[in-house]
Task: structure prediction
Amino acid sequence: MPKSQTESRKKDHVELVIAKGAQYAKTTGLERVDFFHNALPEISLDSIDLSVKFLGKTVRSPILITGMTGGYDDAEQINRSLAASAQKYGLAFGVGSQRAMIEKPELARTYIVRDVAPDVPIIANIGAFQLKKYTSSQIESLVSAIDADALAIHLNALQEVIQPEGDTDFSGVLDAIARTCGKLSVPVIAKETGAGINQDVAIKLKGAGVKYLDVAGAGGTSWSKVEYLRSNSIPGFEDWGIPTADSIIQCRGVLPIIASGGIRSGIDGAKCIALGAEMCGAAYPFIRALREHTLDEYIDTFQKQMRICSFLAGAKSHADLKKAKLIFR
Ligand SMILES: Cc1cc2nc3c(=O)[nH]c(=O)nc-3n(C[C@H](O)[C@H](O)[C@H](O)COP(=O)(O)O)c2cc1C
Result:
């Protein structure tokens, strides 16, 4: 059967991001935040436990591999490898947009990972715009087909306006999100894809019934850069977006937060928890490490860095780390 436009675009995205990086020039803002070093931690590094309940399951570390791929042949192995490492290290895992699977149900196999990740939270994924076109039972089937614990609805207005074939009528999207939240059997996470979420939007999403926000702020993968590199379309928006640190500060207190966008180390991740997030997440560094055959080492170092930050902040647990004092420069 011929490849659909959605299938070949998903493959282009992965290959382009790995080959070119396509990262923001602008930073996450986390370099302006430091832990107050605790010269007398009075705890043992070995006793630090950063496990936390997320979507009804316990993760060993508050880390999410955020949704990237699915819907074409090679994506099956990418998702299975990422999910297997998530299971090994006790992290949460998200699949990429399942739009290709609605268009061609036989592509479901490229997203199914529950057999290799039986114990970790798995997150289904669809674009907010797509909700306008599909029925609630089609959306529910995305969740049930992969035995997901939540659905991430991605907000990617920036990417869509830069993409030549993009969907640019975002009117009615909030209503469609509210309809989905009202009908779905699992909680909904609203996620950006790298341009961040502000407080007004966070409040509207909460009103629509969303249970978590993945802020996916600026400072990491730039989707306008990806689309510009892919299609040479509209330049000038490669650095558009709310830096991740600012987006966390905007949204904290509205809904529980997953902090992502440019999180590249466990030190970045620990700062996000102390800034008010429940979980931290990343996409690019995990797929890059997978391609370089260093995924497990990368995750191991990331987890160790988070634990060392906790130790040096005198925080024994996830709850303590959330309360750790920060210096803002
Ligand atoms: C190759 C690649 C493909 C992506 N595809 C999706 C997707 O299908 N759905 C989605 O919600 N986000 C997608 N994203 C966005 C990420 O989940 C994340 O929000 C964004 O890349 C920022 O995180 P990062 O700076 O750690 O890469 C993708 C990211 C990458 C790198």
